[in-house]
Every structure is written in C-alpha cells, then in structure tokens.
Specification:
By secondary structure, the protein is mainly beta. The protein has one helix and eight strands, in the order H-E-E-E-E-E-E-E-E. The structure holds zinc ion (ZN).
C-alpha cells in the first residue's frame, strides 16, 4: 500500500520530529493528559507541595499516595541554554534552539524548550505551556513566551 505512504521529503510526515519520551506505570496519567493538552503535576497531600517529575514517593517528605492536579501552565524562565548543535539528529533543522528550565507557578522546575528567536529569550521572562504533537497522539509540553513580554521581533 505505497499510495498511503507519505513521500520522504514531505513536510508533514508521521516520522518523529524528536526523540519521543517513553512512558512508565508512574508517568502514564501525565502522558494520557497530554493527549488533551493538559499539564498534570503530582501533588503531595501530606506536605501540600507539587512534585515534578512523576514518581512514587514525595521527594520532600517521602509520603506515598501522590495525587494528580492540573497545572496552570504558567511559569518563569529560570535558566536558558542555546544549543547550536542538535541534541539528536531529528533536531538538526531546529538549531539554534533554546533549552530552558522553567519555574512553574506551582513551585516545580521543569526542563523544556521555548520557541522563538533564541536571542530574545531571557531569564525571568514569563512563559506559558504550548504543545508539540508526538506521533502516538501524546503531546510534549514546550513553552512559549507570554504575550505580556511584548517584545517585537524584526523578523
Ligand atoms: Zn510530601
């Protein structure tokens, strides 16, 4: 059935655009929610803190029974690193790109990417969650700068 196969040079194929993260029993609720572009974080009822990344025990107080809550998706850039060499071969057309640590409003720090011109991305900028589709229906959480930053690009 070659007539259903997209040409290799098509812009919109189902080939992975990046390394796609594996799931686990613990992280499955997180990944299921990304199918609806919802960002879930674990929450510890014992110490009332958010937990990232998904795990069995609270890293703050070692309690178990972590629950899931939907996060706001809002945060602030804590650190940024511009990559001029792709981390994997699939990323070769994206360089340079920004790898960031984002402090979410819920109090956890998450590593991700921020889109846009890398020379306009700075520590302290407000960002919000955006979603990049994966090939199996899940989405990867990435970030975009919040419009309140108001930077006008020459491009
Ligand atoms: Zn705890």
């Amino acid at each position: 059935m070659t007539d259903t196969d997209p040409p290799k040079d098509a812009d919109n194929t189902l080939e992975p655009q990046r390394m796609e993260p594996p799931t686990s029993k613990v992280s499955q609720p997180f990944w299921d929610a990304t199918r609806e572009k919802k960002l879930l974080l674990q929450h510890c009822e014992a110490c009332d803190r958010a937990v990232w990344y998904p795990r069995v025990l609270c890293p703050h107080c070692s309690a178990d029974g972590l629950t899931w809550r939907e996060a706001s998706g809002h945060g602030t850039i804590y650190a940024v690193s511009v990559q001029y060499r792709p981390g994997t071969p699939q990323l070769k057309d994206r360089v340079p790109y920004a790898v960031v640590l984002v402090d979410l409003d819920e109090g956890v720090r998450i590593m991700s990417n921020v889109g846009g011109r890398v020379d306009e991305i700075e520590v302290g900028q407000a960002v919000q969650a955006a979603w990049e589709p994966l090939t199996d229906g899940r989405h990867l959480v990435v970030f975009e700068r919040s419009s309140s930053n108001g930077t006008q690009s020459r491009a």
